[in-house]
Design goal:
Helix content of chain B: 25-40%
Structural class of chain B: alpha/beta
CATH topology of chain B: Rossmann fold
CATH topology of chain A: Rossmann fold
Largest sheet of chain B: 6 strands, mixed
Helix content of chain A: 25-40%
CATH architecture of chain B: 3-Layer(aba) Sandwich
Distance between the termini of chain A: 50 Å
CATH class of chain B: Alpha Beta
Structural class of chain A: alpha/beta
Number of domains of chain B: 1
Shape of chain A: globular
CATH class of chain A: Alpha Beta
Oligomer: heterodimer
Radius of gyration of chain B: 20 Å
CATH superfamily of chain A: P-loop containing nucleotide triphosphate hydrolases
Number of helices of chain B: 10
C-alpha cells in the first residue's frame, strides 16, 4: 500500500517566494487498485508519481510504502524501487543496449540477479508486453514506436514490481498501439499488480481506471470513481481538463431535452441509453 | 498552380547491423503523390511507422526523395539552391515543444527565424508582434518559455514559424504531449491561421477528432496513400480504418452504433451538434 500523509513538495524551497509543486497531499492507494491521475501540464502529477518510487522525497509530510517511511536518509530506496516500477514519459528514449533482450535484462542485472535469472525474467516480461521472440536479438532502435515503448516497459516489468506507475505511456502512439498498451495494463492489473496511470486522455482513464485522482495547482481536487469525477464537468474544464467525449455528448443531449444517462463514457452503453430514451417517446 | 506537388515520392534508407554493415533497405515512403493548394487544411493519418512523418519531412526539404519529385511553390526540393526558398515557404512544428524553443524570452524565440533570414530589425519586431497576436500569445512576450504550459509553448513554436511568413505550416503531432486545454488551443490557432491568413495547414495527428476540420484527409499505410477524401468520406469507412490501425472520432462511432441499431441517421456524423440534430429528427423533439 502507498500512502501520502500531508505531503508538501518544493523544487525551490530555499528560494524567496517559493511555490509548492505539491500541497496537502493525502492519498492512499491499496494493493491491486487501478488508479488514473489527471491534471493539466504543470499541475504536479509527475512530481506526485516521482515520490512513489522515491525519486523525490517530500519537503514536508510523509510518504509511506507498506508501513515504511521513505526518505533519502533511511537508505531503503533500493528495496522500494524493486517494488515500485516507474515508467517515464517517452521511455523508449532510455533504450540503449545493442539488443532488445539485453536492454530488458539491464534492470534485473542491477538487482544483482544471476544471468540465467535475468534472462528468465526478461523473457517473461517481453512475453507479457507482447514482444515476439524473433525480436530478442534485434536492435531496439529498429522497432516501431509502439514496439519500442513495450520493450521499455518490459525493462521495468523484468524487475517484478508490485506497483507499476506510468507517466503518460500512450503519448504519441497510434490508436491501435494505445489500445494494446492499455489492455496489457488491464491484464497486469487483473493478475494483481497495482497500476497508477498518468494520462491526458480522459477517454482512456474513464475506460480503464477504477479510481481517478485529479491534481490541480499542486492540490488533489477530486478523488473518486470516474463516474463521480466526470460529473464535475465545469470544474474540470476550468482546470484545463474535460470529460470523455462520450460523456460530453450525453451531457449535451440531456441539456437538449433527451432523457439519457449522462454519466456514461462507453460507446455501447451510450447507444443503449439513447435507444431506450427514443423508444419511450 | 499547386503550392506543393509531390509526384511518386519514394524515400528509402539503408539499414545497418550492429557492426555498421549494410543489411538491407527500408522503403519508408513508397510513391506518394499529393497536391496541396494555397489555403488547404490537410490532415495526414497513419499508424506508428507508416511513413507519415518521413513523408512530411519532404515538404520542407529536410529529406529529399530518392525517386520521384517534390515541388514547393514551384521549386524542386532536391535542387540544393532551392532549400532556403522551400524552407521559407513551408515551416514545420514538431511534437515536443521543449525541443524547439531556444530563446530566453518568448519574443526572442519568435524573432530567431526572421533574424536568420536577415530581416531588418524593425521589421523583425513587427513580425514578432503580429505572429504572437495571431496565436494569442502577445501578452506573454516578455515571459520565459520555461514558465509556459505545453499548449502555450506549442503556440510560441507556431508563432516562430509564422514570423518567417510561410505559405504553409506542417504540424507533426503538435498535440501529442498536451492536456485537453492545450490541445484545443493549438488546434484553434492552426484553424485561425488557415481561416484568416489563408495559410495552408498540413496536420499529422493520432487524434481523430482533430481531423474533422480538414478539407482533405490522406491515410498513409506502409509508405503509401491508401485512402483519401473529405473527413466525411473517410470516417464513413469505419472498418477499413480499423485495418490500418486507426479509428473514427467517438461521436462518429456512437452515430455508427446507433445506425446499426436501426436509427435513421446520416453517414459519418462528425460533430456533437450534428448528432443532436440527427437525434432530434428521429424523436421529433
Amino acid at each position: 500500500m502507498l500512502e501520502f500523509v500531508d505531503v508538501e513538495y518544493y523544487y525551490d524551497s530555499d528560494m524567496p517566494g517559493a511555490t509548492p509543486a505539491l500541497r496537502d497531499i493525502n492519498l492512499k492507494i491499496e494493493d491491486g487498485e487501478f488508479v488514473g491521475i489527471i491534471g493539466h501540464t504543470g499541475s504536479g502529477k509527475s512530481t506526485l508519481v516521482q515520490h512513489m518510487n522515491g525519486l523525490l522525497n517530500p519537503t514536508k509530510g510523509k510518504y509511506i510504502y507498506d508501513g515504511t517511511v521513505i526518505d533519502a536518509k533511511s537508505g531503503n530506496l533500493k528495496e522500494l524501487r524493486a517494488k515500485v516500477g516507474l515508467v517515464f514519459q517517452y521511455p523508449e528514449h532510455q533504450l540503449f543496449e545493442a539488443t532488445v533482450l539485453e536492454d530488458v535484462c539491464f534492470g534485473p542485472k542491477n538487482m544483482g540477479l544471476t544471468d540465467d535469472e535475468c534472462k528468465k525474467r526478461a523473457v517473461e516480461a517481453l512475453d507479457k508486453v507482447g514482444v515476439d521472440a524473433k525480436y530478442y536479438d534485434a536492435s531496439p532502435f529498429e522497432l516501431s514506436g509502439g514496439q519500442k515503448r513495450r520493450v521499455a516497459i518490459a525493462g521495468v516489468l523484468a524487475m517484478s514490481p508490485r506497483v507499476l506507475v506510468l507517466d503518460e505511456p500512450t503519448a504519441g502512439l497510434d490508436p491501435e498501439g494505445r489500445h494494446d498498451l492499455l489492455n496489457m495494463l488491464k491484464t497486469l492489473n487483473d493478475e494483481g499488480m497495482t497500476i497508477v496511470l498518468v494520462s491526458h486522455s480522459m477517454d482512456d482513464v474513464a475506460k480503464y481506471a477504477r479510481r481517478l485522482v485529479v491534481i490541480d495547482n499542486a492540490y488533489i481536487a477530486f478523488d473518486g470513481t470516474p463516474t463521480e469525477v466526470f460529473s464535475h464537468k465545469s470544474e474540470l474544464v476550468n482546470m484545463g481538463l474535460n470529460v470523455p467525449q462520450i460523456t460530453g455528448i450525453m451531457q449535451s443531449l440531456k441539456s437538449n431535452g433527451f432523457d439519457v444517462d449522462d454519466t456514461l463514457f462507453d460507446v455501447d452503453a451510450a447507444a443503449e441509453s439513447i435507444m431506450k430514451c427514443l423508444d419511450r417517446k | 498552380m499547386e503550392l506543393i506537388k509531390t509526384k511518386d515520392c519514394v524515400y528509402e534508407y539503408v539499414k545497418h547491423d550492429a557492426d555498421g554493415n549494410e543489411c538491407g533497405k527500408v522503403r519508408a515512403v513508397d510513391g506518394v503523390s499529393l497536391d496541396v493548394e494555397q489555403g488547404d487544411f490537410i490532415a495526414i493519418l497513419g499508424a506508428n511507422g507508416s511513413g507519415k512523418s518521413t513523408f512530411a519531412k519532404h515538404l520542407n526539404a529536410i529529406l529529399v526523395p530518392n525517386e520521384g519529385s517534390v515541388y514547393v511553390d514551384g521549386k524542386l526540393t532536391s535542387d540544393p539552391d532551392n532549400v532556403w526558398d522551400v524552407r521559407q515557404c513551408t515551416g514545420m512544428v514538431f511534437q515536443n515543444p521543449d525541443n524547439q524553443i531556444i530563446g530566453q524570452l518568448v519574443e526572442e524565440d519568435v524573432g530567431f527565424g526572421p533574424e536568420n533570414l536577415c530581416v531588418p530589425t524593425n521589421e523583425i519586431w513587427q513580425r514578432v508582434e503580429e505572429s504572437l497576436k495571431a496565436v494569442g500569445m502577445y501578452a506573454y512576450r516578455k515571459k520565459s518559455p520555461a514558465k509556459l504550459s505545453g499548449g502555450q509553448k506549442q503556440r510560441v513554436s507556431i508563432a516562430g514559424v509564422l514570423a518567417m511568413h510561410p505559405k504553409c505550416i506542417v504540424l507533426d503531432e503538435p498535440t501529442a504531449m498536451l492536456d485537453p486545454k492545450g490541445r484545443k488551443e493549438v488546434i484553434r490557432a492552426a484553424r485561425a491561421l488557415n481561416d484568416v491568413e489563408n495559410i495552408s495547414i498540413i496536420l499529422i495527428t493520432h487524434y481523430m477528432e482533430e481531423v474533422i476540420y480538414a478539407n482533405k484527409v490522406f491515410i498513409i499505410d506502409n509508405g503509401k496513400v491508401v485512402m483519401q477524401g473529405t473527413p466525411k468520406e473517410i470516417f464513413a469507412r469505419v472498418d477499413e480504418l480499423k485495418q490500418v490501425g486507426l479509428e473514427v472520432p467517438q461521436v462518429t462511432l456512437l452515430a455508427h452504433e446507433l445506425k446499426s441499431r436501426g436509427l435513421n441517421i446520416a453517414d459519418a456524423v462528425l460533430t456533437e451538434a450534428e448528432l443532436i440534430e440527427e437525434l432530434k429528427k428521429c424523436s421529433n423533439l
